[in-house]
Amino acid sequence: MVSLPLARSYVHGLDLTFRWGRGDGFLDVLRGCQDGYELTGLVERVRVDSRGWVDTAEVYRVVNAWIARNRPQWHSTYGHVPLKGVPAVKQP
Fold first, then answer.
1. Tens-of-pLDDT digits for all 92 residues of the chain?
2. 91 with 4: CB under 8 angstroms?
3. Burial label, 83 (beta-carbon count in 10 A; 0-12, 13-18, 19+)
4. Choosing a second label site near 52 at 20 to 30 A (CA), which of 8, 27, 37, 73?
5. What pairs with residue 30 in β-bridges?
6. Among 41, 28, 30, 34, which Cα is nearest to 2's?
């Protein structure tokens, strides 16, 4: 279970969802377009600052660093994932 509020970003070209609950010490990398709160399709749990993200720019910085490190061919072809809106999900 992840903390709320939750930042989530789906990268279509990689078919990966990046999810980081504020206050969680991990960013979850999941296969497919995941909109739930479970760890379905978990690829990796990336250690991050447990104080949580401050804004969407910080989330995208971590996402882009992961892509550059783990999918270098995709990253060199397409570059950084652009900052899009506010990928936060409000508490239900």
1. 678 888 999 999 999 999 998 888 999 999 999 988 889 999 999 999 888 788 888 899 999 999 999 999 999 998 888 876 444 443 33
2. yes
3. middle
4. 73
5. 17, 42
6. 28
